[in-house]
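Suppose you are handed only two things: the residues of a chain and a line of SMILES describing pyridoxal-5'-phosphate. What would the bound structure be? This form records exactly that question and the answer produced for it, so the two can be stored side by side and reused later without any lookup.

QUESTION INPUTS
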Amino acid sequence: MTGQSEAGSPWRGVSERDWNNWRWQLSHGLREPASLPVEVWGQGAAPDGIARVTANYPLCVTPYYLSLMGQGGLQDPIALQCVPQVRELDMDISCEPDPLREEAAMPVPALVHRYTDRCLVMVTRQCAVHCRHCNRKRRWKRGGDSVEQIDIGRMVEYVSSNRKIREVIFSGGDPLIWSDGKLDALLGAFRAIPHVEILRIGSRIPVVMPMRITRALCRIFKRHRPVWFNTQFNHASEITPESARACEMLLEAGIPVSNQSVLLRGVNDTLETMKDLLYGLQRVSVRPYYLFQCEPVTGAAHFMTEINIGIAMMKQIWRECSGLCQPAYVLDTADGRGKVPLTVHSSLSSGGLA
Ligand SMILES: *Cc1c(COP(=O)(O)O)cnc(C)c1O
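ANSWER OUTPUT
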């Protein structure tokens, strides 16, 4: 069921055609706390302090994503991921705006090269939804893209002159904010580099604005294959007929779809919610890839869980669930180690399984 057909929904009366049009979703994104529907703040107004939060970290959410919110009020897993909270202003001395030191690992602006055989290019600062747990929320300033010239030409030049790079990852912001024509040109420019074998898209669009995955877009991806797609489902309630269909369309175009979740306190940090998510992903043919430990990012510390909780949960999942449902639980670090697996390895010693 889509949000606009539910009784009492603020989107009642919106035509199917508009609702299913990604440009409509994008242009009707909610950006003012006062414009959120009554289920969010209850009968009262937004609490004191929210205006200060959104001055630092603006609100932005599609009607579609907000319509997935259930009965849980602000504790609902969808609300936790998109509704601003006063806790984002907590000063925590262990947090930093850029704990992965990405800004220091950019040989050209907005291109991060930390692993020899692959690099990450941030093609825009914009997203359809501002995820409150974002580890790049430092980059959300209003009018973002003018702050830093995103110069695709310089990125192409860098990758062309570095023959060890065989994979280019498009991230952001969300690259699928771009028009079909711009994406086609972007993928084509990197595809034309002889040593670039793999193009990878990192996008949360199938989850937060699935109507962006159109047949025309899939044809573009298909033409530039091999293209791999990584998205970010964090909770089973995000697996809807619409998001499942978006993934199916990508799969039908020959684009493998994998999932990178973030372990988020209150959203998916119990065994049952995590199993529901992983089983749900397997049902829609999306392969769990990574489960990220939440970073100590300024403005997102309230989402962090203890690593021990994650390890215990993953041990249990390893025992109980299909191998096809197993993500690698990882901690990303700023130093040379990069992503570090957090699995508890059992070793086969002479005494048996330890
Ligand atoms: C995570 C990351 C990648 C991709 O790593 P994989 O393990 O291949 O998914 C590439 N570049 C940067 C800078 C990253 O942070």
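WHAT STANDS OUT: The two ends are 49 Å apart (CA to CA). The domain at 103-350 is CATH 3.20.20.70 (TIM Barrel).
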